[in-house]
Amino acid sequence: MSPTVWLNFALLTALGGGLIWWLNRRVAGSRLLGRWLLVSYGLRVGLALALFLISYWRLPMLRSLQLYSPGFWHFALDGGVYHTYGSQIAEAWRAGSDIPTTEGLGIEYFVIVAALYRFLGAHPIFPVVVNCLLATLSGLLAFAISRRLSNERVAFASAVQVGFWPSTFIRSSQILKDSPCLFLVLAVLLLTLQACASIQAPRRLAAPRVWAWGLAFVGTIVLLTRLRFYLGSILAVVALAVLLTATAVSAARRRRSVGARYLALAALIAVTALFARGLNVERLMAGSSAVMEGVRQVDDQLLTTVREATPESLDRQRRNFVVTGGRSLMDPKAMIAHLGSLLRYLPRALAIGLRVEGFDIDEA
Description:
It is a single chain. It contains 15 helices and no strands. It has helices at residues 3-27, 31-56, 77-95, 108-120, 125-149, 152-163, 166-172, 178-200, 207-227, 229-252, 256-278, 281-286, 300-308, 311-319, 339-353. It is globular.
């Protein structure tokens, strides 16, 4: 790591810490919660840096989990792909040339990584720091959500639980989508609660505030759906189920105006999710010219490993990770391609998750 990388890493980390403290003062106003959030952030960044250096310097620790590409790990294979494509997109922007196609992988997260690389340099530690920041801020969002539904004490407990949930430390230490998606899910929930509060107790709001909420709401749903389409689909289904029920209840109580607002909110969520699913972001970014055919020379060994990996091989690989305490498991028979397949898979997912007696994942 060059001195420039270390300097940018320190500045980005400090900026993230300052942002956490400032947002905590505005949202929670609790010094104690601010300290807990900063501890969570510090632990995340420290773990991320330690894991990166262990793999980068090939230290004799957890060697079976270290990837051949320095700085990356077997339990986060996607990270190497995001780094490779992100570097190439950033270089294409710098050169003013067409961006490489991501071969159906979805370009959104690659663009986020590339934007960081364009301004800070193509080093994998920078997206990881942003992931640590988003994972920590998820705790603050959990505080805001719980405070609306309960009280300050419950909200504080929720923030600490989300901020220190063990598995999120590993996820935020790698270039993965998990931390941004967690942040976006909680942001959508908070924005939805704000809308429901305004529906139940209508009051006149300034137009700029309404527009700001609307843009944030729509933008968050679009980004969440583009990052992981099934999250947007589930959001739309749940929103329709809950808000249509609220509409019916309001109509039964002869509060038709309230019911109409609930119906409008449900329609906004569903239409936005459907709109996001149909977006062709890669073509939009390519402008009037066609997207490049093929990909420039990339880390062929890494991409070949990812492409040739089968559900069975990944299942065996993940089973070997039990020694790390993660105990993650991939179901080799799962093929989730659309909302219908997700709904059909739910009984099997519940049987696996709840460890139903007599259920064998390899034989079922």
